[in-house]
Design a protein that fits this description.
This protein is mostly beta strands. The protein has a domain of 122 residues: Cupredoxins -  blue copper proteins (Immunoglobulin-like, Sandwich). It contains six helices and 21 strands. The chain has a six-stranded mixed β-sheet with strand order 12-9-14-19-16-17. A five-stranded mixed β-sheet has the order 13-21-20-15-18. The relative contact order is 0.15. Bound molecules: copper (II) ion (CU) (2 copies). The site of one copper (II) ion has 4 residues, from loops.
Length: 335
Amino acid sequence: MSRAHLLTALVLTGVVAGCRERRSPAAAPQGAQTPSTTPAADVSHGEAAIGSADTAPVDPQAPPRTAARLRRVRIEIRHATVTIAAGVSYDAWTFDGRVPGPAIRATVGDTIDFTLVNRAPMPHSMDFHAAEIAPDRVYVNVMPGDSLHYRFVARVAGAFLYHCGTAPVAMHIANGMYGAILVDPLRPRPPAREFVLVQSEFYTRKAGGADSNALALDWQKLLGLAPDYVTFNGRSAQYAAAPIVVRPREPLRLYVVNAGPNRISAFHVVGAIFDHVFLDGSAAASLSGVQTVDVPVGGGAIFEVRLAEPGSYPFVTHAFADATKGAVGVFRAKE
Ligand code: CU
Ligand code: CU
């Protein structure tokens, strides 16, 4: 064994021994009485089983760039049962029957001509963070069976949140009423594979209805900031179960929007360093060569990254209680 190899072996042994020593009961899986001596997964950050999907994940691909000048957007509010984890359904309040609602894309200068139809049995509303507009004129309650129409010009590029603004807002967001609206700059960003990841939380209790196994919102858990599930695109660990396949070294662009309603996302891709991060998507607020960047609740960021070689690269919020609760996915880089 050469000196270099010997040194490497010693360092690796030390790292492994160090990791074992650092394990504490607090780091053990929920319910474990003593720390496990065997790792839960053979991949770093393996907070969820990889490749175990029995249902198709929510498509994470960003909608294509458009420059329509006039973008008509029509969204229907419906209360619907959605899947928030494998085998777990939830009585959600939705935009278009899905959580998150549909990703919307426009270009700076486009007029968004928006119609909201309320097919739910209670008032709801719509707040676009991409708009500059008087909330008391248009972010108003739409009664059951009624609709609302308004227009705004998308003046600022970025990755924005939209959500129901009906009080209590935390309840409407926690029940599923949010999505992403992407506004592209006039000069297109460089070509890349583009994905939208909306992070959010679910606070659950048994719904109580005899005819339903679906869970419903636990308001006290919400006020206590104690979610049961933290998800990307509304379903716990779905992109670990069904990894997102990309190619090594190809440019990736991730539009990460954090709906919350409570938890900051410390967004990180394991095994990669971001080439560029644009806070909220702003060209004036860019970082390069960074490892983890916070996406605040009610905010977004655009992450540009390339994966160096073939392999599985988890993406997480590095606030690891939340990754353990499902805010984990995997990019699988394959030639
Ligand atoms: Cu609502
Ligand atoms: Cu808001």
